[in-house]
């Protein structure tokens, strides 16, 4: 299932890697696409949306539904 999140606070490549790593720790099979300029994170995963959002938020980023 493709899920899209608006993520605020990503300012660099390190931020992108941190978000991707957090999502992969939840679901190692997840496909993660990040558009830092738009503040969008797309995740192809069967895990619940709230679990994925929590993984991003736990890294210090603000997450909202897209």
Automatic annotation (TrEMBL):
Residue intervals of the HMA domain: 1-64
Record Pfam families: HMA
Transmembrane stretches, start-end: none
GO MF annotation: an example: metal ion binding
Listed name of the protein: Cation transporter
């Amino acid at each position: 299932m493709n899920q899209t999140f608006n993520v605020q606070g990503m300012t660099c490549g390190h931020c992108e890697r941190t978000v991707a790593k957090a999502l992969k720790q939840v679901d190692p099979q997840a496909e993660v696409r990040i558009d830092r300029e738009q503040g969008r994170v797309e995740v192809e995963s069967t895990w619940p949306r709230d679990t994925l959002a929590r993984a991003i938020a736990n890294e210090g980023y603000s997450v909202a539904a897209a």
